[in-house]
Amino acid sequence: MPRPKSRNKKTGSQIRDPATRAGSPPRSIADLLTRSRAPALRRVGPQPFDWMGFLSEELAPDLSSRITTTEWTEGSRLVIYTESAAWCTRLRYALAEALPAIQGRRPEIRRIEVRIAPQRASG
Predict the structure, then answer these.
(1) Which of 81, 94, 99, 120 falls 20 to 30 Å from 59 in CA-CA distance?
(2) 36 belongs to a structural domain
């Protein structure tokens, strides 16, 4: 019968910095980011754009109330989710008219997609 494996680590502690050990005072986030090995975490990206608020200003109230959520992808695509296929079609036509205003606000947008995502029942 094979011998069962030990659940304990065979090597010592992997924490080499004494400031990160248990019982030490917490450090600031700025200090952690300056010592971080991930340079992408140090950069602060642009603030997310409020697409729901912008679309409620640009579209008719009956259309903007049917939008469930929006999603901005890394490239140049804006995805807008609505609650049904009928509203999806009406929204596509309305967005074709509002496209110059949308691209005036965000010129990097090349494509807008409208998809169906029903609202969840509250309860």
Answers:
(1) 120
(2) no
Question: Residue 17 carries which side chain, given as an amino acid letter?
Answer: D
Tally the domains of the chain.
1
pLDDT tens per residue across span 22-59: 566 666 776 666 665 555 544 555 556 788 888 888 88
> How far is 24 from 35, CA to CA, in rounded Å?
17
> Of 20-34, 53-67, 104-118, which range is least confident?
20-34
Domain containing residue 107: 51-116
Sign of CA dihedral 88, 89, 91, 96: positive
* Residue 12 to residue 2: CA distance in whole angstroms: 26
**Does a structural domain hold residue 27?**
no
The answer to whether the pTM exceeds 0.70 is: no
Is 46 part of any domain? Answer: no
Tell me the backbone φ, ψ of residue 98, rounded to 5 degrees. -90, 0
Q: How confident is the model at residue 17 (pLDDT cuts 50, 70, 90)?
A: low
Q: What region, left, alpha or beta, does residue 23 occupy, with left being phi > 0 and alpha being psi -120 to 50 degrees?
A: left
Residue 114: its H or E element: strand 111-116
